[in-house]
């Protein structure tokens, strides 16, 4: 059930000062009270990811066709920033994730992942970085630091999410380009989680650095199409999740050098109802079982742990967007164990592409559509 109310907002929100604007608030029922949803802005074309700029709540937002914009808390959209790379804009391809450098206040570097065209009409995921200008109008000196090789996608399963760990390593969660067997091939970067330094160099302690014929960037393998990744703030470990086929979406806590099964081990089947040809079962010796699995796929995208003080009811919860299920998934955690799964915002009818925790303690969501929205989500006072 949902209800509506309008509130007036006013003030200065980083880009400049604005007169009061009218914002619509919707209320949705949940197990922990009424969930509030405000539309910050709309009219975004298939928005894919967002990142908060320091010192306020201005955000960088990617649009899949290849635009990077600044969004103010009041909802003002900037013009597309200059200096963004050309993207392969077919199918699921385009401009994807965005992440700030851990040292952004000093170096102003912005990292982007995107689908990049190669030969013979094929594409792969690339990652680069550029300096955000002081006037917020462009990325200067954009340089590619990583390319998925070989390029095998004809428009699907690019991944991808970018995550920095506490030591400054950059993790890139990749898809297998719908070329299933490649997820098991250590000489290819399809279906892999990779770990590099911020400049693209390979850490000497990566698990396959000394393995002949293996790509040294690889951290873990046997993944399908990873579209969520985040650092657990309580353990410091990286969590990632990936789309299964028809069934078998899963969360993993990837460890170095380990095989997470796809396509040998899966809880899913092909979209047409037939078994996955390479599959040997739901779990297979020599591969790691999922940390958590949905036997019916919600089509998961985006991931955010909640460790803010604003809404104590959400402490030690993990929030994940769902595209097909059109919901915000709330997973309650006891340590690393998932103890409860609740679907929020089902009545909203929106494909949720990204989920981020804002500096103000609210959750921020992007909805995936030709006229997508940026939403601010919280809990109302009881």
- Largest sheet: number of strands, sense, barrel closure: 6 strands, antiparallel
> Oligomeric form of this entry?
single chain
Overall tally of structural domains: 1
Number of beta-strand segments: 25
* CATH class bucket: Mainly Beta
Please state the structural category. mainly beta
Spans of at least 5 consecutive residues whose pLDDT stays below 50 are 1-22
Evaluate the radius of gyration. Answer: 20 Å
H and E order: EEEEEEEHEEEEEEEEEEEEEEEEEE
Termini Cα gap: 16 Å
Largest beta sheet: what is the strand line-up?
1-2-3-25-24-23
Helix content: under 10%
Written account of the structure:
Strand 11 and strand 12 form a beta hairpin. The chain contains 1 helix and 25 strands. The protein has a single domain, classed as TolB, C-terminal domain (Neuraminidase). 1% of the residues lie in helices and 45% in strands. The chain is an all-beta fold and 382 residues long. InterPro entries: 6-blade_b-propeller_TolB-like (IPR011042), Glc/Sorbosone_DH (IPR012938), Quinoprot_gluc/sorb_DH_b-prop (IPR011041). It comes from Stutzerimonas stutzeri (Pseudomonas stutzeri). Keywords: Signal. This is Oxidoreductase.
How are the elements arranged and paired?
Elements: E1 2-12, E2 17-28, E3 35-44, E4 47-52, E5 59-63, E6 67-71, E7 95-100, H1 104-107, E8 109-117, E9 123-132, E10 139-147, E11 159-164, E12 170-174, E13 192-196, E14 218-221, E15 225-231, E16 238-243, E17 249-252, E18 292-294, E19 300-306, E20 317-322, E21 327-334, E22 337-344, E23 352-357, E24 363-367, E25 372-379
Antiparallel strand pairs: 1-2, 2-3, 3-25, 4-5, 5-6, 7-8, 8-9, 9-10, 11-12, 12-13, 13-14, 15-16, 16-17, 17-18, 19-20, 20-21, 21-22, 23-24, 24-25
